[in-house]
Write a structure and sequence with these properties.
Strand content of chain B: over 45%
Order of helices and strands of chain A: EEEEEEEEEEEE
Oligomer: heterodimer
Shape of chain A: globular
Strand content of chain A: over 45%
Order of helices and strands of chain B: EEEEEEEEEEE
């Protein structure tokens, strides 16, 4: 069965600084990987996803993530954060079959300092 | 498209009362999911439907919870009787193709408080 770990519960960065949120997964085959964002009082919204091909994936709002099979990681990055990026970020891993489970991580809450 | 619609957005009720949460998925999406989010347990899948048929309800906490999808555009999650530990945010989500491979579109959630 697959699993996903987000080691950081909270992260604080200054506006304009770069950001990296960590995600580690466990799955025997090539996983389907997702990053979702949840703004306060809202549902989750997909930022980006990886299925195959280029290991550097571009998403919405200037985010990108890199799949590293050797490290079982799928870290989310942004070169310069904006105050509006303050939210909770969820990494998720799927087994790649239509009716298999997606497992969500516990989330990382991002705080932005002005 | 209006996205996934949930009602009510907030619900406050007393222990023992019946609670019904409602969801309208995105038109054309074959899959519908109900999640519960709490600080302690994070995001948990309760049940999901494919073409209106419940496929996996292993996440439903107990018999007090039930979910139905009478047609492709409407689903309900019912709690009877409600208990304080049911207080959480309940999300409905839908997807076009499936669970393990496709993007899920989430509604804004219903914040349930059971006193």
């Amino acid at each position: 069965a697959q699993s996903v770990t987000q080691p950081d519960i909270h992260i604080t960065v200054s506006e304009g600084a770069s950001l990296e949120l960590r995600c580690n997964y466990s799955y025997g085959a090539t996983p389907y990987l997702f990053w979702y964002v949840q703004s306060p009082g809202q549902g989750l919204q997909l930022l980006l996803k990886y299925f195959s091909g280029d290991t550097l994936v571009q998403g919405i709002k200037g985010f990108e993530a890199e799949f590293k099979r050797s490290q079982s990681s799928f870290n989310l990055r942004k070169p310069s954060v904006h105050w509006s990026d303050a939210a909770e970020y969820f990494c998720a891993v799927g087994a790649g079959n239509r009716d298999d489970k997606i497992i969500f991580g516990k989330g990382t809450r991002l705080h932005i300092l002005p | 498209d209006a996205g996934v619609i949930q009602s009510p957005r907030h619900e406050v009720t007393e222990m023992g009362q019946e609670v019904t949460l409602r969801c309208k998925p995105i038109s054309g999406h074959d899959y519908l999911f109900w999640y519960r989010q709490t600080m302690m347990r994070g995001l948990e899948l309760l049940i999901y439907f494919n073409n209106n048929v419940p496929i996996d309800d292993s996440g439903m906490p107990e018999d007090r919870f039930s979910a139905k999808m009478p047609n492709a555009s409407f689903s309900t999650l019912k709690i009877q009787p409600s208990e304080p530990r049911d207080s959480a945010v309940y999300f409905c989500a839908s997807s076009l193709l499936g669970w393990g491979t496709d993007t899920q579109y989430f509604g804004p959630g219903t914040r349930l408080t059971v006193l």
